[in-house]
Design brief:
It is built from seven helices and two strands. The chain is mostly helical and about 170 residues long. The protein has one domain: Hypothetical protein af1432 (Orthogonal Bundle). The chain has a two-stranded antiparallel sheet with strand order 1-2. A hairpin with a 2-residue loop joins strand 1 and strand 2.
Length: about 170
Amino acid sequence: MVLKEYEPLIVNVIKQLCEDSHFSQTTKYKQHGNISIYEHSIAVAYTSCWIASKLYFNVDYTTLIRGALLHDYFLYDWHERNNEHRLHAFSHPRKAMQNACEDFELTSKEENIILRHMFPLTPIPPYYLESWIVCVADKYCALKETLRIDDIQVKKCIGAYQYDFK
């Protein structure tokens, strides 16, 4: 699947998630640096689709996208100094899952994506291929956002500039 092929699917899933839910609230909370949870989740969805298409993985793209968009659906500012947020990295998958279950009907793959995206910080590994893809995409996007670097800088850091990824 080429980027242009899954872009309308991502846009469609975002529209569906914004209807009758709290998904649009993710624009209010920062994730890494100046990036909102909303922007981060969209980046993870795009990156997940890119990984799946480049590696010719046979995945359910709608499930992959929904899981990526909902993986950080915890709906609070984890940067606030608060005992409830002290262990955010370990606890937010459960909160995201709780919120997602309140607003949406989830498949077992979507639940696994949300609950296991923080592996290895959370000890149980992802079960489905879609879950592994989102887990990797999340780490990649978080690194880029935290270090405030673009794709070209990432490729140079890891020596990937020598290869054409298009």
